[in-house]
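From the shared-data thread, chain only:
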Amino acid sequence: MSRTVKIGNLTIGGGNRVAIQSMLNTCADDISGSVAQAKALEAAGCEILRMAVPEISAVKLVEAVKEAVSIPLVADIHFDYRIALACVCAGIDKIRINPGNIGVDERVRQVAVACANAGIPIRIGVNSGSLEKQILAKYGAPTPQAMVDSAMYHARLLEKFDFHDIVISIKSSDVRTMISAYRLASQQLDYPLHLGVTEAGTRHMGLLKSAVGIGSLLCDGIGDTIRVSLTADPVEEIRAAKDILKAIGYPDCGVQIVSCPTCGRTKIDLIALAEKVENALAGCRKNIKVAVMGCAVNGPGEAREADIGVAGGDGELLLFKKGKVVGKYPEQQIFEVLFAEIEKL
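Structure, as tokens:
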């Protein structure tokens, strides 16, 4: 089990629930647009929000977003330690910076001391395209162990100044490499791990790759925060992350939908009904399982673990709870009946 780290009002690691993260994709100088997007992400369920701070003048974005949302904020910084120090002063909740990229030990020390004094953790972000020359020379390629070595190298730079509020991410666009790297990291490091497949792609393929990578690790008990990186509206990242957590049965993630793929026995428009139910329950926070099945064969029997469900017949559907049939209704009425019963759960 990883050690705990506090990010603003949120504690990760140590067996705490997995937190969902995303990142603003607005320009750093677009304050109003960034604030609007931050609010939308918080409303969608984002629990940790990262933003790029490419230069000192962009630090004002931290202050503006901090006033607009209540979730912890992470400043993404590359190379310039002075931006990190300015973000600390601006009230950031977490810094994402690689200590080996900001210069001499004194600069690392200043960042470590400032963050320690303010109670701000640092995330070390390693990916397959950012490995140090000496590590690449040793392994010949960005292998999983090479990536873990890079993370350990950066962590040691902070540990030298007695700084241990560290979060590690070891991302790759190759799913197998990403999974192997995080598994090694979980064995060799006790810092909380932020999971993600970097440059995963557009919504469809990016979600698939992230589901395989992030989902596999979470099923192994590895990972403390997650981000589904998509070439899409960041709100889609939050929806995808929630769906991944639902798919592995993670608690407190809302409704799970069970539906069959249909076959020649199906006598109703099950595809349309299943989509209608899924869309209607998208924002429901009840921890229940709802089944939408095509026939009695695949209904109360196969979906007996569902809290409530429907199974199609010839123009009518059975309503069942925990595998027991409780009613029979015409197809045109079943949606309203199902939702009236869900309201009672």
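The chain has a mean pLDDT of 93.
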